[in-house]
Design goal:
Shape: elongated
Number of strands: 5
Helix content: 40-55%
Number of helices: 10
Largest sheet: 5 strands, parallel
Structural class: alpha/beta
Length: 224
């Protein structure tokens, strides 16, 4: 029997929350465990709605949290994302508009995906399943934002630097990445060192393979 994915929603639009309850209630692989108007409410306030008996005390992080990008409490999206990530949940941002700069900011803060609210139920369900399985939730909005991201914090990588970074960060050894690119290990290391230097100059120090994998995810390099 397939594992049921637990989902919570943070949004201050009551009509949207009612719609999501109805939508997700008809998907047997998903279980909506809580809705709240703010991240603070979700994490501990007693008035968060927990339709399946989750109490405020002893918060049980769901597999995936759907988080509205802009909440009326004025909280910073990046702070909301980081608070939720610290609990162990994965975060799917949802928004009414595909604001390119805000998409990039959310991904850099650690969000695992971004969808606008005009997507249909199958797209939302697929995104939730991707996140729960450890993947990122790619969308046209996210791919477009990343492809046109020219901020100084995102280093400009040459095609060969990008190739070595993606192959190495995905789990290949440097030797295997070099062989796949048709270059020597020494040359591959030079490319990787250049990538690290560029991230250092952008104010995003990157030292280990895990750091490199994190940069790939933050900048959605595998989607561009």
């Amino acid at each position: 029997m397939a594992r049921v994915i637990t989902v919570s929603v943070v949004d201050d639009d009551r009509m949207l929350l009612d719609g999501l309850r109805a939508w997700l209630g008809g998907v047997p692989e998903l279980r909506l465990v809580a809705t709240a108007a703010t991240v603070g409410e979700l994490l501990g306030a007693p008035d968060a709605q927990r339709p399946y008996g989750f109490g405020a005390a002893g918060y049980s992080p769901p597999d995936v949290v759907l988080l509205d990008l802009v909440l009326r409490d004025g909280s910073a999206p990046a702070d909301n994302i980081r608070r939720l990530l610290r609990t162990g949940s994965r975060v799917l941002m949802i928004s009414t508009v595909p604001d390119r700069s805000r998409i990039i900011e959310a991904i850099r803060a650690g969000a695992d995906g971004y969808l606008t609210k005009d997507h249909d139920l199958p797209t939302l369900v697929a995104a939730i399943k991707d996140l729960a399985s450890g993947q990122g939730a790619l969308s046209a909005e996210l791919a477009f934002a990343c492809a046109h991201d020219d901020s100084p914090a995102r280093p400009r990588l040459s095609p060969r630097e990008r190739q070595i970074l993606l192959d190495y960060a995905s789990g290949l050894t440097l030797k295997s990445a070099a062989r796949r690119a048709g270059i020597t290990v020494h040359t591959a290391k030079d490319y990787l060192d250049r990538v690290k230097a560029k991230y250092q100059q952008a104010g995003r120090p990157t030292y280990t393979k895990l750091d490199l994998a994190q940069r790939v995810r933050e900048d959605s390099l595998d989607a561009g």
